[in-house]
Design a protein that fits this description.
By secondary structure, this protein is mainly α. The chain has one domain. Helices cover 73% and strands 2% of the residues. It has a two-stranded antiparallel ribbon with strand order 1-2. A hairpin with a 2-residue loop joins β1 and β2. It is globular and about 55 Å long.
Amino acid sequence: MNPQVVVDGLINGAMIGLGAIGVTLTYSILGFANFAHGEYVTVGAYATLVLAAGVSALIAGSSDGLGASSISPALIVAVPLAMALTAGFALALDRFLFRRLRGRGDSISIVMASFGASMAIRAAIEFLFTSRPAYFTRELQIARPIAFGLKATPNQIALLAVAAILLVAVHLLLSRTQIGRAMRAVSENPALALAAGVDVDATIRFAWILGGALAGAAGVMVGLLVQIRPFMGFDLLLPLFAAAILGGIGSVPGAFVGALIVGLGEALTVELAGAEWRAGVAFLVLIAVLLVRPSGLAGRAA
């Protein structure tokens, strides 16, 4: 086996992991599978593309890559703004759609609404930006040796570092802060959390904000390392759910570990069987987990 598969798998897993965190938070707190979550990845990528172009037009030289990477100052400025916009988009969709349906207590209606919202968002993006792929940069990146015969491009190294920082930050946020404790309480028992004085509505809003922002970051990773297109989030949807379920619903570290396993599996499949079999890996992982350990790696046994 080519050892380069490890690097490719880690990169795939990092992209999947940032999105899977939002999936696991939404499911653990609200109790429904949000099929529109993949579209938040797409929204984040296109928002970053538009904002980076705007910054480049305002500031001369801001489109030049920093160091050996093709990550420009304009892109660095655009990413946090796009993450905030994606978080706002996720919050708005909950406010005008999911929140209304939650009051009826019909989880099936919410799931179907998320599926319909996914199609509507994807169609709107395709209408606005067409189906042609877009890129943050067309600069060619050359893989460089890092260690043990492995190679990676400067962009890949930078994005892996950013993904690791975001993971640690989210873990500390959920484990060391008041809002993190509130989210865990709402996940365990919303009624008891409300009785204990937790602002459940504010906690739910923060879950949407956090999940949307991380999905936006995942969209930037996909856009930088692959390409930007309307179906990019939809293609990630099954790996996102596979990673969240494999890691254990409600566990942020578990979701990221599950994402790394799925990413490594996809990279290994491409190496051994060809790229056309890649999409089947997440499905096989999902089925295997549901049959063998439905609670996931870090989930609680039923």
